[in-house]
Design goal:
The structure holds 2 protein chains of 2 kinds.
Chain A (H helix, E strand, L loop, with lengths): L3 E4 L2 E5 L4 E7 L6 E7 L6 E7 L4 E4 L2 E6 L4 E6 L8 E9 L4 E6 L3 E6 L1
Parallel strand pairs in A: 2-11
Antiparallel strand pairs in A: 1-3, 3-8, 4-5, 4-9, 6-7, 7-8, 9-10, 9-11
Chain B lengths: L4 E3 L2 E4 L5 E6 L6 E7 L6 E7 L2 E4 L8 E4 L6 E5 L8 E8 L13 E2 L3 E5 L1
Classes of the chains: A mainly beta, B mainly beta.
Chain lengths: 114, 119
C-alpha cells in the first residue's frame, strides 16, 4: 500500500519568512495530493491540492509542487503570518491505487514567531 | 451550507464498554470515510463507503470495530469492548463524488472528530 513520509516534524520561522514542507510517497499509482491544515483541537481543513498531471499550483501565499518521477511533493508558504501556525499534513491517494482513501504523512508543526 | 458534523464530540468509556460514534456528512455527498487520529499523528484510514455500500474496511484494526451507513447518508462507527489503545480522535470525512473522479469532487471535507478516551 501507499506510504507517505513527511519532514520536518517541526518548523519554526520568523514572521515574513518562507516555510517549506516536503513529502515523499511510495505508490506510483497515487494521483491526488492534498494538503491539510489542522489547528489544535480542530478539524483538518484543505488548503491546497494537486493532481499528478500538474507540476505546480499556486493560491496566493501557498504553492505546491509535484515531482512525479521522484515521487515527492512540497508545500511552500511565503510571507508567513502568526495565523499560519498549525500542524500541516500532506496526503496521497487516488482511484488508480485501488484504494480510495487518503494516506497521510505524520504532520509538520509550523510555528511562526511574530 | 452545513459541513460534516459528528457526535458526540467527546466520549469517555470504561474499558470493556461499547461505544457508537455518529457522522452526518454533507448532504448529497456520495463518499464517506472514517479515520483514526492518534495524538501527534496523521489520520489513519479505517473504512470507506460509497453511498450505503462499504467498499473498503481494510483499515479497521480488529473485529471489535464495525461501521454502517444503511441509507447512504448518516454513518455510525461502533467499537465493542473498548480497549485503552482505542483512545484517539475519530474523524469522519465526506466527498461529493467518487474518489479519483477529479474535478474537485474528491475533495474530502472533515468533521470535527470525536475524541474517545478509554479508561
Amino acid at each position: 500500500g501507499e506510504n507517505v513520509e513527511q519532514h520536518p516534524s517541526t518548523l519554526s520561522v520568523q514572521e515574513g519568512d518562507s516555510a517549506v514542507i516536503k513529502c515523499t510517497y511510495s505508490d506510483s499509482a497515487s494521483n491526488y495530493f492534498p494538503w491539510y491544515k489542522q489547528e489544535l483541537g480542530k478539524r483538518p481543513q484543505l488548503i491546497i491540492d494537486i493532481r499528478s498531471n500538474v507540476g505546480e499550483k499556486k493560491d496566493q501565499r501557498i504553492a505546491v509542487t509535484l515531482n512525479k518521477t521522484a515521487k515527492h511533493f512540497s508545500l511552500h508558504i511565503t510571507e508567513t503570518q502568526p495565523e499560519d501556525s498549525a500542524v500541516y499534513f500532506c496526503a496521497g491517494g487516488g482511484m488508480d491505487t485501488g484504494r480510495r482513501a487518503l494516506t497521510f504523512g505524520s504532520g509538520t508543526r509550523l510555528q511562526v514567531q511574530p | 451550507g452545513a459541513g460534516v458534523s459528528q457526535s458526540p464530540r467527546y466520549k469517555v468509556a470504561k474499558r470493556g464498554q461499547d461505544v457508537a460514534l455518529r457522522c452526518d456528512p454533507i448532504s448529497g455527498h456520495v463518499s464517506l470515510f472514517w479515520y483514526q487520529q492518534a495524538l501527534g499523528q496523521g489520520p489513519e484510514f479505517l473504512t470507506y463507503f460509497q453511498n450505503e455500500a462499504q467498499l473498503d474496511k481494510s483499515g479497521l484494526p480488529s473485529d471489535r470495530f464495525f461501521a454502517e451507513r444503511p441509507e447512504g447518508s448518516v454513518s455510525t462507527l461502533k467499537i465493542q469492548r473498548t480497549q485503552q489503545e482505542d483512545s484517539a480522535v475519530y474523524l469522519c470525512a465526506s466527498s461529493l463524488g467518487l474518489a479519483g473522479t477529479g474535478g474537485g469532487q474528491e475533495t474530502q471535507y472533515f468533521g470535527p472528530g470525536t475524541r474517545l478516551l478509554v479508561l
